[in-house]
Write a structure and sequence with these properties.
By secondary structure, this protein is an alpha+beta fold. Helix content is about 20%, strand content about 30%. Strands 1-2-3-4 form a 4-stranded antiparallel β-sheet, with no helix packed on it.
Length: about 60
């Protein structure tokens, strides 16, 4: 497992377009965290998230996984 490098994130906005939260994602070592805690998920969520980002045209450093 690598040291998480959160290159990918999902930002959540309120009705005033202010960022209210972010979900940081490391698709290299399959970890997620918010500003306050890590999130436990199984490997399927990371594969689905990886496909989601790739489908949007977002480059992933290890996209051959």
């Amino acid at each position: 497992m690598c040291m998480p490098t959160y290159r990918d994130a999902i930002a959540f906005y309120d009705k005033s377009d202010q960022v209210i939260a972010t979900l940081n994602v490391c698709l290299g070592c399959d970890r997620m965290c918010t500003a306050s805690e890590g999130i436990a998920a199984d490997e399927r969520i990371y594969d689905l998230t990886r496909v989601f980002f790739l489908d949007l045209g977002h480059p992933i450093s290890d996209d051959e996984r």
